[in-house]
Every structure is written in C-alpha cells, then in structure tokens.
Amino acid sequence: MACSPRNKELQKDEATLKHDQKMEWWRDARFGMFIHWGLYAEPAGEWKGERIPGISEWIMCNAKIPVKDYEKLAETFNPVKYNAEEWVKLAKYAGMKYIVITSKHHDGFAMFHSKASKYNIVDATPFDRDPLKELADACKKHGIRLGFYYSQAQDWHEPGGTYRNSDKQPHWDPEMTKAPLMDYIDSKALPQVKEILENYGGLDILWWDTPWEMTEEAAQTLQNVVNDYPDLITNNRLYRPWPGDFSTPEQHVPPTGLDYDWEVCMTMNTSWGYKWYDDNWKSGEELIKMLVDIASKGGNLLLNVGPTAEGEFPEPSIERLKEIGSWMQQNGESIYGTSASPFFKLPWGRCTMKETKGGTNLYLHVFDWPKDGILTVPGLDTRVSNVYLLANPKQSFAWKFEDGNLNIHAPSVIFDEINTVVVVKTKGGI
Ligand code: FHN
Q1: Which of 34, 103, 118, 134 is positioned for an S-S bond with 304, CB 3.0–4.6 A?
Q2: Structural contact between residues 244 and 260, judged by C-beta atoms closer than 8 angstroms
Q3: Which of 25-39, 146-160, 272-286, 344-358 has the lowest mean pLDDT?
Q4: Atom 6 (ligand 1): residue with closest C-alpha?
Q5: pLDDT tens-digit readout, 153-192
Q6: Helix-strand-coil split of the chain, %, nearest 5
Q7: Phi, psi (5° rounding) for residue 152?
Q8: Which residue's alpha carbon is nearest to atom 13 within ligand 1?
Q9: Cβ within 8 Å of residue 267, ≥6 positions away
C-alpha cells in the first residue's frame, strides 16, 4: 500500500487513520484519465472560420461568443458515435484506475440530465441519452473508479456565475445581467452538485475547478453537501485556502514530491477540450517517463483526453493510450501501490518503492544506463535478496556493496530506455 509522505511524521490519530483509509485506493492507483467533453468539442478551437488561440474549452470566453450564439451549439450537438464501454476499456487497457469527466465546465452546459437547469445534454440537444449515466454504468462494470469535474464558481451562462475578473469587468455579452454569486450557487451549483452525487451510483471523486471569486459562504454551502459523503475524495480547488484531499499541480511535474497527496493533471497535446488542429502531441515515451517521474515523487497522474463532438477519442490519444498500456501491462507493478523514492536524486533514472511481506522492493527505472555498465544505488546498505529485470525475472544481475553503495553490474545489451526496470528485493526496510 502506498502512503503519503505526510503520514511518516504525524502520529496516526483517528482522523488520520480515517483519511488514510479513504485515500488508500487513490494512492495505490497512481494513474487516472481526465476527460474534457462538452459543447466546445463542436467548434473545436475555431469560430466563424477563425482559429481561436488558447485551450478550446475556453472558446466561448476567448472568442467573446454571446450566450445566445453559443447556446445554438446545443441544437446540433449529437455524439452518435459515443460508446462509454469503449472509453472505459481504453482507459483500463492504458492502466488507468479512475476516470474524472467534466460534468459541467465553465460554459455552464451540463453533460448530464439535470433538473436544476434545462441547459443540459438531455433536454437541450438531439442526443436524448445521459452520457454520464452510461459512463458510470460502464465504470462499475469494469471496476474503474469515477469522478466528476464540476466548475463550481465559473459559469458563463448564468448571471451569478463568475468568469475571469468578473468582479472588475462586465461579461463580454452585453445582454448578460449581473447577480450575486450566492444566487447562482443556490439556484444551480448546489442542486447540480447534489444531483451528481446522488444520481450516478456514488462518485469516488469530486474535482472542483477555478475557485476564482469563490467566497467562504459559497464554499461552505457546497462543502456541507460533500460532508454527507465521507468516502468522497475532493481536490484543493473548491476554495483557495482549503486543502481538500489532494493538491493539483497543472501541466507541470513538481521538482520534488509535495508534503501531502498530489495529482498532476496534464494534456496529451496542449488543449483540454478537443481542438482539431492542435497536433502538438507529447510522445508515448514522454508520457510514460512522466508517469514514472511522478510516481517516483509519490504523486498521481491524471492524463487528459478531449473527445470529439461525435463522441470519439482523437486517434493520436488512442495511439498513446495503447502505447502506455503496453508498457503498463509489463511494468505496472513498479507504479501501482508504490511510494516515493527514498533517494534524493539518481543520475540514471527514477526509483519507486513498495513494501512487501518479505521486505521492500525498489523499482529502478533506468533511462540512461551508465557507460561503465555499473548501476549505482547510493547509500543502500540493507540486505538484498535478489536483483532482476521486471520484464523478465529470469534475467538477474550481479551486484555487490562497495563504499556503502549497491553496485549492479549488467550487460547493457538488455538496456531499453523505458522498459528497463530493475527490481532490487531487500530483506528489510529501507
Ligand atoms: O480553466 C480550466 C481549464 O479549462 C481546464 O479545465 C483545467 C484543467 O485542470 N482547469 C482550469 C485551468 O486551471
């Protein structure tokens, strides 16, 4: 079982034990899928023939689209190729243990059947199915945990919703009136958060976003609902000073681990929502090394897919999910249930660690095999029972302790930049 750095120091009081119990599956999971899907998949980064700079789910704001014009997208939004089973099976093949999908993004459009607002996929589009219900069912069937993203303050469709600097400048749509935040919270955010928590089989995660101009009153109103779900995991974006259960470094990997649970959210190209001409894709190898780097620091990776308006994952996303999946089939043991490396810095790669019955396993992810053929693990002076290649346990390595380090001698012939994971089984703790 992975444990966060914070538990090593703290006395395990009752609250900490309960928190650890709640977080256990999440810490062991290490890897999830983020899905940004909404009306913005239709324009896909382009408006009236013009390419709109920035992340495509922001197109309504960035292109200053009046509410009435943006609403028209719902009349033709009909993702007939949507197949929740396919999405979940792809996430599972990639080695992802949970999915977080946008239930309502800043544009205010609900991707679920909401009684609180008719501005939703069932009531406002020709697609008269509830895609999030189908996703919840498919996740249950395949043992994948499910979370909903909810933009609790930003809502560009409602008078009380916030947007960038809404406390300083008027909405880009002159017809949009202003209302107090609590009007929006009471009339839409609160009832919709209750709907998503009550109607989708029990969510595992609630992923808040952009708490700009949130107030303590608004945050407490929503938190009171969350408190009725003691096993629900929430992030640190409900209301800035509040930590939630995990922090959320975005589009970057922290240089070291953080002092409590954390999850990097990352796009595969540069946009969260589908952007048809954004072909700035990270390679599969880069994403695998990113996952390893994050796990070696004790964090999770939430890797994003932006489906098309037809309801399909973009082909480049599928390619990367399959490449990562092949790697995870072979090396997932070195990611799942591991905790951060006990070593400060390793010149040749990364290390993850896992407590087992017999002792501690170290998983050495070798990105650059040293030229002299000797892989040095600094300061390791515990008893070692075996050193072998994770991908082929029959391929063992000679090792010896020299000057307080463990030196592993290996024919570099086996070296493969992302598939060389060397397991050091020790007989005791580290
Ligand atoms: O504004 C959003 C953005 O559209 C996207 O949803 C990301 C994902 O973490 N969160 C906000 C930017 O931080």
Answers
A1: 34
A2: no
A3: 344-358
A4: 272
A5: 999 999 999 998 898 999 999 999 999 999 999 999 999 9
A6: 30, 20, 50
A7: -80, -20
A8: 210
A9: 251, 304, 306
**CB of 55 closer than 6 angstroms to any ligand 1 atom:** yes
Distance 209 CA to ligand 1 centre (A): 7
Q: Look up residue 191 and give its two tokens.
A: 């009832």
181: how many CB neighbours lie within 10 A of its CB? 21
- Specify whether the CB–CB gap between 364 and 351 falls below 8 A: yes
Checking if the pLDDT of 220 tops 80, the result is yes
Atom of ligand 1 nearest to the CA of 272: 5
Ligand 1 center–CA 379 separation, angstroms: 41
Classified as helix, coil or strand, 389 is: strand
The reported pLDDT for the residue numbered 410 is: 79
- For ligand 1, say whether the CB of 130 is within 6 Å of any of its atoms: no
Which residues fall within 8 angstroms of residue 49, CB to CB, at 6 or more apart?
none
- Verify whether ligand 1 is closer than 6 Å to residue 209 (CB atom): yes
Crossing angle, helix 84-93 and helix 315-331, to 10 degrees? 40
Indicate yes or no: pTM above 0.90: yes
For residue 101, the SS3 value is strand
What's the gap in Å between 238 CA and the centre of ligand 1? 13
Residue 66 Cα to ligand 1 midpoint, Å, equals 21
Q: Dihedral sign, CA of 259, 263, 269, 275? A: negative
Separation of alpha carbons 92 and 325, rounded Å: 8
Residue with CA at minimum distance from ligand 1 atom 4:
57
Helix ranges (DSSP H) in 269-314: 284-296
Q: What is the enclosing helix (H) or strand (E) of 247? A: none
305-348 pLDDT, tens digit each: 999 999 999 999 999 999 999 999 999 999 999 999 999 889 99
Token code pair at residue 265: 């959210």
- Give the Cα separation of 248 and 252 in Å (integer): 10
What Rg value do the Cα atoms of the chain yield, rounded?
A: 23
Distance in angstroms (rounded) separating the CA atoms of residues 248 and 284: 22
Report which protein residue has its CA nearest ligand 1's atom 12. 210
Residue with tokens 């107090």: 180
- Laid out side by side, the sheet with 405-409 consists of 374-377, 405-409, 398-402
* Ligand 1 nearest atom to the CA of residue 105, by list position: 6
